[in-house]
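Input record (one chain):
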Amino acid sequence: MNASAELLKELKLQRSRTPSTPPPSRRGLWIGLGVAAVVLLAAVAAWLLLGGEKAPEVRTAPVVAIASGGGASASVLDASGYVVARRMATVSAKVTGRVKEVLIEEGMRVEEGQVLARLDPIDADAQRTLAASQVSASRSQADSVQAQLVEAEANANRLSQLVGQQLVSRAQYEQAIAQRDALRAQLATARRNSQVAGDQLRIADQGVDNTIVRAPFSGIVTSKAAQPGEIVSPLATGGYTRTGIGTIVDMESLEVEVEVGESYIGRVQPKMPVETVLNAYPDWRIPGEVIAIIPAADRGKATVKVRVALKEKDARIVPDMGVRVSFLEAAPAPGEAEQPQGVRVPAAAIVQRDGADVAFVVGGEDTVEQRAVKTGIAMGQDRQVLSGLAAGETVVLDAPETLQDGDTVRLAGADDTE
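The corresponding structure, as predicted from the sequence alone:
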């Protein structure tokens, strides 16, 4: 019985064991993965819209019509240069001295011979006084010799009559003749000395005049270099000594000098019409013509200097202004073929696509249209277009290689607004 009871005890269920838990659910994991995928797709879409597909920024230029024949000319070459004066001088004194007064100011117009400044003439006045005294002394000496000569000639004439009557000896007569001749020689010497003294006086007068600085020609004072009390000298090399009083420019002699590359100098001819634009006044076109081609080249820059005349004179044109010169074709003579028509655009607007010349025209909503164009002659930095473009349209400059027909662009300088 005891054995059966023990077996029954062993078969008793153990209530103390905890029931087994079911496996965890994966629904939350799938929800998390879905949210992450949505966020990733949104980030990729934002990058494509805001970064990857951002419209390229481009520069543009207008298409300009070329004027019809009847005097209009196309530019065959453009060059940069400066306004220069053929007559310009830094006026200085001929002698070294201290400036007493300066009578000019910048911007003042002076006439030829007008007094610009005066130096202290104390030394020059002293030299002139000495020269005048020497003139007086030499003239007095000549007058004294002249009086002695009159007496000697009278004595010689009297003795010549007495010697014929044998009342005086011939020795006395010959002595009187010798004294007369000596006085004649002395008189000639005195007169020469008086002439030399007069020349010295004139030189002294010139020395006084050299202390006065005058304008060598009519013009405008562009700089004032000296002040009263300063020392000026034409041979000054430094220190506190000035070399000039001021600078005068003849505004009627203004012209333009440009440097043309050696490879393009063949396009320039004497008397060739030109059009000059001052950097300070970009809307003012000044007609002119080529004066001369300087027959010398700059080895370092490989350029040749060309002189250009300005046919309009104006107070706004001043030396050393920067200019841009367009060398023009001669206008066709009556009966000759007229200048080709069309429009002109910057050369950077013409690009190559599949071996053909094309241009991208900016249309509505900043989209571009690719157009095939037929080009003509080069017009400086521009290019003639015979067909494919119309005046007033806007073209893209330096179009990117990836730019295609129908693409959207952003204009350079336009504000980026959200």
